[in-house]
Design brief:
The chain is an all-alpha fold. Helix content is 79%, strand content 0%.
């Protein structure tokens, strides 16, 4: 099941990845591979949510929860939390995220803990609480970096960069975004897209940041960020926070 996502290009829209999972799903079901089918159904539920197809999303998510391994229950709660965030019911979203975190801790699964921390940060941004969002992102970086999980580190760094740009720390934001881009690959970016919520950007776009810093300032900060690597980028993202 992981192969279709890994083969997708980073420029491919979610629909391209969704088609690959949909192609695999009937074969997995027919072969009695319930756990494999559950692994495909989870991202399909997520993509259905992005399209606004709540009914189909819930069908896929329920299949993923009922037939998946224990750690997949954590992803189920994260995805339900995303529905509650979309509804503006943040208390219900946080309740789902607490359940997700409990499951990830019970089964000692770091990946689902990372997804939970990231989704919680998304919820905090939706509630206009950037300090809480940063706290969850920092927690995620503290888990992902020692494990060498470059895909997750890139995802979290990019979100921190957005929060920095929102608060006017533009050079640091550019460095962190460049560091994140340097860690991304087509496969790990699409893999993360299959499991985490899209980040609700709050800061100015790249063109606006470039205009404020000037071409030389922007390009210099970008080059510096590309050279940071995981350890220095995480240190900068978490310094004094």
């Amino acid at each position: 099941v992981r192969a279709p996502a890994a083969r997708a290009r980073s420029s491919s829209p979610p629909e391209a990845t969704s088609r690959l999972f949909l192609r695999a799903l009937p074969f997995l079901r027919a072969g009695g591979e319930e756990r494999g089918a559950a692994l495909a159904a989870g991202p399909l539920g997520q993509f259905a949510m992005l399209r606004g197809d709540r009914e189909r999303a819930n069908t896929f998510l329920t299949e993923a929860k009922d037939h998946g391994e224990d750690w997949q229950a954590s992803l189920y709660h994260c995805r339900i939390a995303r529905q509650r965030i979309a509804d503006g019911d943040y208390a219900a979203a946080r309740a789902q995220l607490r359940l997700a975190l409990e499951v990830s801790r019970a089964v000692q699964d770091q990946f689902t803990a990372l997804v939970t921390q990231y989704t919680w940060a998304v919820c905090a941004v939706a509630e206009n609480d950037p300090a809480d969002a940063r706290g969850h992102l920092v927690e995620g970086l503290a888990m992902a970096a020692p494990a060498g999980d470059e895909a997750a580190v890139a995802q979290f760094l990019s979100a921190v960069a957005d929060l920095d740009s929102r608060h006017g720390d533009l050079e640091r934001a550019v460095r962190l975004e460049a560091a994140a881009q340097a860690l991304r690959t087509p496969s790990n970016e699409m893999w993360m897209r299959a499991f985490v919520a899209p980040w609700p950007a709050t800061g100015p776009g790249r063109a606006a940041v470039r205009a404020q810093l000037g071409p030389d300032g922007f390009d210099g900060a970008w080059r510096d960020g590309e050279q940071l690597g995981v350890d220095r980028a995480v240190a900068e993202a978490t310094a004094g926070r």
